[in-house]
Amino acid sequence: MSVDLATVKRVAHLARIAVNEEDANRMMGELNAILGFVEQLSEVDVSGVEPMTSVTPMAMKKREDVVNDGDKAEDIVANAPNSDRNFFLVPKVVE
């Protein structure tokens, strides 16, 4: 797949980027080089290669999932304009 000058100008227009003729020609070469590299990557045989999350083998750090109240109710309502026994007080909006 290769990109021509009209495609570069159309993409620039869609991206709302002002591109003059000289820049469009330079971008055409750069985009074609990028697409050529991507095509080269698709030729690599990766059958039998497991997907990896890191270049070094490592186990994910996990913590036990424990439900608690956080014990921060007083800190949470500290800046509230109105509160009562660690609950937010809000004005009534429904009659």
TrEMBL record:
<dbReference type="GO" id="GO:0006450">
    <property type="term" value="P:regulation of translational fidelity"/>
</dbReference>
<dbReference type="Pfam" id="PF02686">
    <property type="entry name" value="GatC"/>
</dbReference>
<comment type="function">
    <text>Allows the formation of correctly charged Asn-tRNA(Asn) or Gln-tRNA(Gln) through the transamidation of misacylated Asp-tRNA(Asn) or Glu-tRNA(Gln) in organisms which lack either or both of asparaginyl-tRNA or glutaminyl-tRNA synthetases. The reaction takes place in the presence of glutamine and ATP through an activated phospho-Asp-tRNA(Asn) or phospho-Glu-tRNA(Gln).</text>
</comment>
<keyword id="KW-0648">Protein biosynthesis</keyword>
<keyword id="KW-0808">Transferase</keyword>
<dbReference type="InterPro" id="IPR003837">
    <property type="entry name" value="GatC"/>
</dbReference>
<dbReference type="GO" id="GO:0006412">
    <property type="term" value="P:translation"/>
</dbReference>
<dbReference type="GO" id="GO:0050566">
    <property type="term" value="F:asparaginyl-tRNA synthase (glutamine-hydrolyzing) activity"/>
</dbReference>
<dbReference type="InterPro" id="IPR036113">
    <property type="entry name" value="Asp/Glu-ADT_sf_sub_c"/>
</dbReference>
<comment type="subunit">
    <text>Heterotrimer of A, B and C subunits.</text>
</comment>
<dbReference type="GO" id="GO:0005524">
    <property type="term" value="F:ATP binding"/>
</dbReference>
<dbReference type="GO" id="GO:0050567">
    <property type="term" value="F:glutaminyl-tRNA synthase (glutamine-hydrolyzing) activity"/>
</dbReference>
<comment type="similarity">
    <text>Belongs to the GatC family.</text>
</comment>
<keyword id="KW-0547">Nucleotide-binding</keyword>
<keyword id="KW-0067">ATP-binding</keyword>
<keyword id="KW-0436">Ligase</keyword>
<dbReference type="GO" id="GO:0016740">
    <property type="term" value="F:transferase activity"/>
</dbReference>
<dbReference type="GO" id="GO:0070681">
    <property type="term" value="P:glutaminyl-tRNAGln biosynthesis via transamidation"/>
</dbReference>
<protein>
    <recommendedName>
        <fullName>Aspartyl/glutamyl-tRNA(Asn/Gln) amidotransferase subunit C</fullName>
        <ecNumber>6.3.5.-</ecNumber>
    </recommendedName>
</protein>
